[in-house]
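Now for a chain:

_____
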Amino acid sequence: MSQVGVPYRYGGASTNGFDCSGLVHYSYAKAGKAVPRTTAGLWQSARPVSYAELQTGDVLFFRIEGKMSHVGVYVGAGRFVHAPASGRQVSVESLDSDFYSLAFIRGGRL
């Protein structure tokens, strides 16, 4: 959550800028846990978790433009933090929003 407002940067995994998987990688490293750097690697490593089972710190996977290509971190109360896209900043969104509720594939526990 302390990275909210940091700009999106493709390939970024530091406070200078994050892409979606870079933010997850950085956040877990700060918590002392090594996780894969890519969205695909996170998908493969995470134990599937349903919406009803989500806990703070779980990763969330989204289908954007027809493919699984986005990841964020669940922060509780139906919200998640993520690095959304070029020209935007790390932000908190609701899983109940029209866009993300349709794009949500599943959660994962690392």
The domain at 13-109 is CATH 3.90.1720.10 (endopeptidase fold (from Nostoc punctiforme)). The CA atoms of residues 47 and 64 lie 21 Å apart. Helices lie at 20-30, 39-45, 98-103. The mean pLDDT is 96.
